[in-house]
Amino acid sequence: MLHLSSHYIIGATHSECQDFTLHSDVPIPHLVVCDGCSSSLGSHVGARILAKTAQYLLQQPTIPDYHDFGQYVINKGQRLVSQMELPNEVLDSTLLVAFVQNDIVTAYIYGDGCILYQKMEGTIGTINIEFADNAPYYLTYWLNEEHQAAYAMRGDDLMYIDDSLNPQFNPQSFRKPLIYHFPLAEYKTIALTSDGAISCVDVENSDKKTLAEVAPQLLQSDKPLDDNFVEQRILTMQQHYVEQQVHILDDLAVAMLTQAE
Question: In sequence order, what E strands does 41-186 have?
């Protein structure tokens, strides 16, 4: 049996939370995480617009492929913000989605963020996606060829993928589709997170917790799998870290699905 939950918290250095999450098992189990750009005014609104639009697509009889999915979400989002007389930069947000079909969890990633997973035999793995200069390739770039060209002025290989179980040592093209598949027969738990998962820092000595250290805090727990199990795990981790003088500096959003024992 699958259990789904999601939650988001504001970062210690933020005055407004730009992260947002959604989850549902109707009509199929799915997860959504969005992380609005801190430097783009109103991105907390855009993150919610993109998340809701993505969920609408995930609830349709046929889910589009990676490119069509992203293009629909940003086109719909642009029409909505235009009607609200807001600038397109409101939509500067990452988008991570995962959905279950035929006993396989498929994840589409647009921009930066993390995937945490635990295999059936207990092995924990992490995937961290980052971009040069901390400048993700947002879906808003898909709206405008001039913006795409400006982004590409720095080069093509601007994306870095740190996959703990399948190391990649070279930067990747920022245009590379980020699609991952996790068969439920092999994977017990899959979690999508914003890059707040790599912002856990001991402010006294600037020591940052690695994603490998954070992952077990979120993926493993002896507590029951109730509707709010992700919230419980985040708050437990946060309390544990505060005792160590470690603070989650950035907003943190986590959406997770896990199989019961």
Answer: 93-101, 104-110, 113-119, 124-131, 157-163, 172-173, 178-183
Contact between residue 98 and residue 106 where contact means Cβ atoms under 8 Å apart: yes
pTM score, whole prediction: 0.97
Contact between 217 and 233 (Cβ < 8 Å): yes
- For the ranges 47-51, 166-170, 224-228, the lowest mean pLDDT is seen at 166-170
Q: What angle do CA 186, 192, 198 make, to 5 degrees?
A: 115
Mean pLDDT in residue range 105-112: 98
Residue with tokens 């789904």: 4
> What is the separation of C-alpha 224 from the centre of its chain, rounded to a whole number of angstroms?
24
For 124-136, write each residue's pLDDT tens digit: 999 999 999 999 9
Q: How far apart are CA 110 and CA 133, in angstroms?
A: 17
User: CA 194, 249, 152, 155: dihedral to nearest 10 degrees?
Assistant: -110
